[in-house]
Structures are given as structure tokens and as C-alpha cells.
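User: Second chain of the day. Same drill as before.
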Amino acid sequence: MRGTAATPRPEILVVEDNPDDVCMVRDILRAASLDIAITVVEDGALALALLRDGHCVPDLVLTDLQMPRMDGIDLVEWIRREFSSLPVILMTAFGSEDIALRALQRGAASYVPKKHLQQNLLRTLEQILEVVHAERQDRTLRRCLVGAEHQFILENDLSLIPPIIHELGEGYATMMQCDENERIRLSIALSEALSNAMCHGNLEMDGREREKVNGGWLSMVDERRSTPPFCHRRVRLTARLSNNDAVYTVADEGPGFAPSALPDPRDSANIAKVGGRGLLLIRLFMDEVVHNEAGNEITMYKHAVQ
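Assistant: Same format as last time:
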């Protein structure tokens, strides 16, 4: 996300005690020419102190899991408790999969395996910054709304996802009276579902193609979305909201897949894999997830907290 006159310069708080990993994050952002301010601290205790005294007001926190004094999972819990609108992204190393899974269950917004930083860090940062900034630009809530239904028919254009997610996130926050962290997690799950429907469903891109760095996979998206038969396929999104439940259905027109053959993304052994990452986040952040038999439609449920 590039800074402009209309958009404040994004700021990230990086919590990492390994200088080499900090340098890698800086190099990735520098190579992409992203105008993002970075503040670095060595552990969760220092990060929390910085947030509490107001010396750092970041748009998101990017944290390692295993650190001295206060580790990543404790930091996630404290931030969720004291700064509920601040999203946290985990950087996971081999062997930390169980800890990462617990942190996601306790409030983290997303994760990036360290061995896949080059492939996934930029996409993850931009996805969450888009959600955060869109929400902060428009705080007007429709407090009298008691029910709503939205239906969209979308081309395979990834740029359509952020404004739709913003609209649906606003409606969800109004209807469910949830905190901002929960709204962000819902928005991420919907974004993953729509991206999967476009890229994996309609455009039939596999996980290896999504791993291409330096925008390679985006070039493939642009090429396929203008080529038959892919260019004729659409994604259908239906959202039904009430004060008790929110139901989201995303359907593509691709060949589908066998949902029963998918590895369980909630299994910590699968958390470091690029494939299935989006489904893992969807299943963690939604209350119920159901696929149709053809594997080209997913229905996601969120229930109001009683």
C-alpha cells in the first residue's frame, strides 16, 4: 500500500529479536518500494510498553512467536484485551505451529511462515492494511438496521474485494455489535474466500502458482481473466445479516474440487504450508464452514455472542 497525500503513511510495529529476520522484513518492503514506517522492538513486553505509553500508534503489529520475557501468544492476548482494534500478524518458524494455532484462536489476524516471507508477507500486509484503512475512513454505522441481504456477481478482479469487504464489514459490525478485531478477522476470512473463488476456482490457479514472487502470480491472474474459458466465469457472493446471525455464501464457476480430500487446516502440522492457508483462516475465524459437494461453493456462518 503506497502512501499518498490522502492516506496517512502506514506504520508497522515489528516485534522480533532476530536481527536477520528484521533485515529480511525491511528488504522485502524496500524492494517493493512501499512507504511504510517501521518501529522495531525485541520482545512482547517492550512492544506492550510502547503501545501503552502512546509512543507508537501502529496500523498493525508483525510479531515473532518465540521471544524472551513475553512471547507472541501472550502479546496477542494482551493486545486483544487492551487494543482490540489493532491487528496482529504472526511470523511462524518451523516447530512453532502449535503456538501459532493457539495465537490465531486467541485473536491474531493472520500469519506468515518465515520460510515463505518473500512470497506472502507483502500480500498479507496489504490485505490487512486495506481492511484497517477502509474502516477508519468511514465510521458511520447504520444503527437502526435489523436485517440486510447483499448479492454480488463479480468478475475475476481482485481490486473489487477490498470495497466489498469494507461494506460487508461495516454491516457486520453494526448488526453484531462486535469489536473491531472481530470485524477485521471476519473481513480477512471473506477476503480469502473471494480470492480463492477467483484465483483457484474460476482461474484454476494451483498453490504453486500462488507462490510466485515479485508479482508473478498477479500477472498470471491478469492473463487468465482475459482468456476463455476463464474470462466468462463469475463469482457470486450472497450475504444475509440479522441481529443473531451472518451467513456468507461464495460460489465460483470453476470445476470445483473434492472438499473431503483437503487436509485439515486446523491441524498444526499443516500451518506452515502455503496451500490451505486461506481455508485455515476461514475455519478459525468463522463459526461454521460448509462446502457443497462440487467444491465450488462455500457457506460461512457467524453467530452473535449471547
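The domain at 11-134 is CATH 3.40.50.2300 (Rossmann fold).

User: Great, on to the next one.
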